[in-house]
Specification:
By secondary structure, this protein is an alpha+beta fold. It has one domain. It is built from two helices and two strands. The protein has a two-stranded parallel sheet with strand order 1-2.
Length: 64
């Protein structure tokens, strides 16, 4: 997932220097949030915070 996300060059000015909040309804491994966070930081976001509604206790079990 590390290279699965990127901010298009036309959107970089909207991201650069901003504080961004990502919201995820269910977090399993965290790979999606990590990939998105890395892409936003690479595009120049000043800070990325994450809010998760629920988290799978054991990712091997999958969503409950």
């Amino acid at each position: 997932m590390a290279a699965a996300f990127e901010v298009s060059s036309s959107k970089v000015p909207k991201v650069a220097g901003r504080r961004i909040v990502l919201v995820d309804d269910v977090m399993t491994t965290g790979a999606t949030l990590e990939g998105c966070t890395r892409a936003l930081l690479k595009a120049g976001a000043a800070q990325v915070n994450v809010a998760v509604v629920s988290r799978v206790k054991d990712a091997a079990l999958g969503p409950i």
